[in-house]
Design brief:
Layout (H helix, E strand, L loop, with lengths): L1 E6 L6 H14 L4 E5 L13 H7 L4 E5 L4 E5 L9 H5 L7 E5 L8 E5 L15 E6 L9 E4 L3 H12 L2
Parallel strand pairs: 1-5, 1-6, 2-5, 6-7, 7-8
Antiparallel strand pairs: 3-4
């Protein structure tokens, strides 16, 4: 599986870019999965539902399945946060995995940047950043630079970089 990341500060446009890239790559005939890093506690379950009750009772994993989808929830129960490689190992094979976040990992990444956030670029401190997608003229060294909304050009760049 080929892996490409999207990183950036909060409200920099990461999720919108991820969403557009998934649609673009799927439209080009690729199979795509995503991994999203969360910096906070999250729950994909609903209190009171059977699967939530199973987890609250102490189950290590709960697999919920239906005719439309399935989801596997794993409780860490005090164990350390899994690294990206451990999470990627859980995925079924696809052509491309897009990773949102995990900016300290070593896979190639594009930085999403919005001028209105007032935040400095991550690229100078993040050696895995290969390009910048911005709504202003943000650049760093000889990194490729794209308009944040030019999804086609960004997808072309990623495909060329990954030889897809």
């Amino acid at each position: 599986m080929k892996i490409w990341g999207v990183v950036g500060w909060k409200n920099a446009g990461k999720t919108g870019l991820m969403e557009r890239l998934v649609a673009e790559f799927v439209g080009r005939g690729l199979t795509v999965s995503t991994v999203k890093h969360a910096h906070h506690a999250f729950d994909v379950d609903q209190p009171g539902k059977d699967s939530h009750r199973h987890r609250m009772a102490g189950a290590s994993e709960v697999l919920l399945g239906s005719a439309q989808r399935w989801a596997l929830m794993a409780e860490l129960r005090g164990a350390g946060e899994p690294d990206l490689d451990a999470l990627l190992a859980k995925l079924s094979p696809v052509d491309l995995v897009l990773v949102e976040g995990f900016k300290t990992a070593d896979h190639a990444m594009i930085e999403a940047h919005r001028g209105e956030t007032g935040m400095a670029l991550l690229a100078p401190e993040t050696p895995s950043v290969r390009a910048i997608a911005s709504d202003c003229s943000a650049t760093h060294g000889d990194l490729a630079a794209f308009d944040l909304n030019d999804t086609g050009a960004i997808a072309d760049f990623i495909m060329a970089e990954l030889a897809l």
